[in-house]
Amino acid sequence: MRDDQLLRYSRQILLPQIDVEGQQRLLDSSVLIIGLGGLGSPVALYLAAAGVGRLLLADHDDVDLTNLQRQILHQNDGIGSAKVESAVHRLRALNPDVTLDPLRQKLEHQALLDAIGEADLVLDCTDNFGTRQAINAACFELGKPLVSGAAIRLEGQLSVFDPRQADSPCYECLYGNGDETALSCSEAGVAGPMVGLVGSLQALEALKLLAGFGEPMVGRLLLIDGMGCRFRELKVRRDPACCCCGERENGF
Fold this sequence. Notes:
Low-confidence stretches: none
Helix content: 25-40%
Largest sheet: 8 strands, mixed
Strand order of the largest sheet: 3-2-1-4-5-6-7-8
Shape: globular
Order of helices and strands: HHHEHEHEHEHEEHHHEE
Strand content: 15-25%
Mean pLDDT: 94
Number of strands: 8
Distance between the termini: 42 Å
Structural class: alpha/beta
Radius of gyration: 17 Å
Number of helices: 10
């Protein structure tokens, strides 16, 4: 590790849970962030600031004026540009040492598998069930840990699914087939600090998994009530009949 890196990351290196060894693991890591909106913004900023060596940034959308109330990765002068381009510009200014790979496409099928295959960890920062199910299935197929967050209105959720652990549930164990009719933020609204809170917690879970400290949210679901500022935790067990991960019990 270079002297300037030791200085840049000194405050987190001081943490005994991270130290120089954990920081080096971060520098050597590759992370895929899918979705550069309200959740992906704090995720990308904090992981870049923390020195994660390579960030694969996936989003097929452009920056819109309505995004700026909560998507703090983007700025007014970026309106109309691709979110991946806006993100690269901002993150490069924050930490030029991080390798940034923009993926301006909707990751589906083989493209999704290819992108996940290049990462050590995946963060799902998207906002619809179909995409989340596809990301979950691909992560379990490739054995990659997945940090999942969601926020709408004044409510948020957070969990970690890790196929490297035999007893870890997956996203489908928790939500089944989901509900494609559920409202999006553009229909139901969302408070900017709410997605900021969930995204920041996603970034923290990613650092724990990458650097190897703490107790990741595997097998647990965090529910956040912004109205009352209350946090509730539920246990989540793997469903042996799950069509995504249940077959592992039978040795397939």
